[in-house]
Design brief:
mainly alpha; DNA polymerase, domain 1; hpI Integrase, Chain A; 3% strand
Amino acid sequence: MTQPANPRPLSIAQAIAAYLDVVRLARSPNTARTYAHALRAFQDSLARREISPADTPLLALQETWLADFARDLKDLAPATEQLYLTAVRGFYAFVAGNWRPELNMERIKFMLRQHSRRPGPRLPQFPYKAIERVLDYAQSLKQVAAGVDDARERLRLLRDRAFLLTLADTGLRVHEACGLRRGDLDWEQGRALVIGKGNRQDVVRFSRRSLDALQDYLRARALLDGSSGRPLGTLPVFARHDKRAGKRVLPISTVTGRSIVRQRVREALGPEAEGTITPHSFRHYFVTRVLKGSGGNLKLAQTLARHRNIQVTQRYAHLSDDELDRYYAAIFEKDEGAAPAEG
């Protein structure tokens, strides 16, 4: 009797595909895309050294290949380099946990510290005053909606007003805002439960103006929601209002969320401002407002922004140029006419 041939050993490429499947299930779509880019770059790095990921068995995977990969990333920004190395180090940990327990992850981490650059701290840059002008414009959309006959356009105006005020006053990330369901909101407490970064459940607080805008929008949407045939709590907070959606109540995507910001920024500030304010700019605005309003309470800002690491929050704890000018003038120009002290 003929013996069956031995199955082909698992290749590096197959292990990478399995790892990325796990990442797609456990992490956000943006993270999954970044990790896919990183692992593609890692495979390209191997190919340049005449190592074929598709033909090389996983048993041949070497710890030193990760150091070689780090050297290949020197043309990238330090922050991107760190992201790519984190992704590929995760792949090595995945391999160690499933097939290669002899891989020494502590040695790998030490080796990467020797070969990678640390990105320097960068202050968040965003147009604070321009965002406030956009929010003033967003408030005016309620009056605009009152004079519009087209039902879909009226709903879009009220939705976009509520969306922008929600981003600014809650610190929600764009995918978190787009994923909100009506049942997530506690109207009496002014809070919502959201699934945040790292698949964590978090409590987010809403301002009075954002709740008022949401109520205006949802009241205008009552007929559409009532005819959906679904429990209200399961319906999205921010819904699509286009011809393709029809009478269905479908959630907006993150692409739509970014389009809302882009369109309303253009209308409020002019075409030259398009792209200068993104959904994440409103999160920067939120953290800065908390710090200004609390006298620089970092712990409060960290908690409300749901930053895991307070060092992220500290990036916002800087004075604006206007504040620096005022303090400088107060110190150096208040006694301009006085004679200098001897010394």
